[in-house]
Amino acid sequence: GGTVQFRALGLDTAYNPVAIDPAIVQWSAAGSGGEIAPDGTFRATVAGPVTIVATIAGIQASQALTVTPDTVPPAVTAPGIGFVTDSTVEPTLIPATVGWPAASDGGNGVAAYAFRRSTDGSPWVDVPLPDASSRSLPEARGPGQVRRYAVSATDTAGNASAWAESAPMLPLVA
User: Fold this and answer.
1) Per DSSP, what are the bridge partners of residue 67?
2) By Cβ atoms counted within 10 A, which residue in 75, 86, 98, 99 is the most buried?
3) CA pair distance 93, 145, nearest whole angstrom
């Protein structure tokens, strides 16, 4: 699903580049690797070879390339917690927000995040997020509860990162 923008350039008699009106270029793609739009935007569809051809007034130039699959998962950072200020704290609940920075992905981008938590050393529990691109959620915690949080990201190619886990967090009310 990655894209690349192609453009055609001419050369003058001294081999200097000369701009060409994009409207007169006809683009085509031969092979199994992808497709090209009339504006020269190539979109990879499957791994494999493809040859991009630019045609202007019957003159053709081509460029062979190979589409390779995205096999690298996104890089994620462990979640952190921010306690809500200027709010009323109940004796049994502490309002907070758990969040994490956007994952970095050298491929086609992040499609979804997954989030989980562990309380007082219990097994991890998956926590549903409001939507696939959410990077924070409200959290009400009891004083003295030790919590750990973890996040994972999956990119548009289906590569899932390892879980990035926070250190144990223990809120104290003074």
Assistant:
1) 48
2) 98
3) 10
pTM for this predicted structure: 0.69
Note the pLDDT tens digit of each residue in 42-77: 988 888 899 999 999 999 999 999 988 888 999 999
Cα 9 to Cα 12, 22, 60, 114, 135: the distances in Å are: 10, 9, 12, 45, 43
To the nearest whole number, what is the mean pLDDT of the chain? 89
Token couple for 20: 């060409």
Residue with tokens 């190539």: 42
Grouping H, G, I as helix, E, B as strand and the rest as coil, residue 22 is helix
* Residue 75: strand pairing partners: 104
Q: How far apart are CA 27 and CA 10, in angstroms?
A: 15
**3-class SS shares of the chain: helix, strand, coil, % to 5:** 0, 50, 50
Q: For Cα atoms 24, 28, 31, give the angle at the middle one, nearest 5 degrees.
A: 165
Q: Rounded CA gap, 109 and 106, in Å?
A: 7
90-135 pLDDT per residue, tens: 667 778 889 999 999 877 789 999 999 999 999 999 999 999 999 9
